[in-house]
Amino acid sequence: MEIHYSTKEDIDEIFRLYRIATDFQKAKFIVHWPEFERSMIETEINEKRQWKIVIDNRIACIWAITFNDPQIWEQRNDDPAVYIHRIATNPEFRGQNLVQQITEWAKQYALTNKKKFIRMDTVGNNPGLIAYYIKNGFDFLGLYKLENTEGLPAHYHNATVSLFQIELIDR
C-alpha cells in the first residue's frame, strides 16, 4: 500500500469512484453527493490536495484535503487543522480499513505541517458512519446547522452536518 498525490491521469478514475460512492449513498441515505465540478478536482490536483491509496498499482481509495474550511467549521476554522473531504473507496478494496490508513497518514501529515487537528464532516445524522469514524479515532463533536453554504457543493445546502476531529499532541 502506498499513498500518493493524485494526478491528472487519475481524474477519470476519481470520478468513477465518486459515482460509485454517490450511487451507494442514494441507495442508503437521503443526502448524497452531487456531481462535482471537474475544475474543482483539477484545482485540488494542481494544489496537491487530492490524494490516493494505491494497492497493486490500482487506486484503492481517494480523498481531498484543505487547511481552511470556514463555512463548515466557522469560528473553529482559526485552529490549525487539516480538513479531510470526500473519502471514496474502490469497492474492490472495501473491508481493508482504509479510513484507518488515511487517519494514520493524516496524523503524520498534520504534524509535519504544524497542525493541531484533523477534522472531517459528513452531511446528516448517520449513526453508522458516526460510529465508524469514532472507531477510527475521531471524536464526534455533534450535529450543526450550517449558516453560510454559498459556494459549497449542493449537498451542504440546507444541511445539518456531523463534525469530527482528532486533536494531536506533539510527539
TrEMBL record:
The keyword Transferase applies. Gene3D superfamilies: 3.40.630.30. GO terms for molecular function: acyltransferase activity, transferring groups other than amino-acyl groups. The keyword Membrane does not apply. Residues 1-167 form the N-acetyltransferase domain. It comes from the Bacteria. Keywords: Transferase. This is Acetyltransferase (GNAT) family protein.
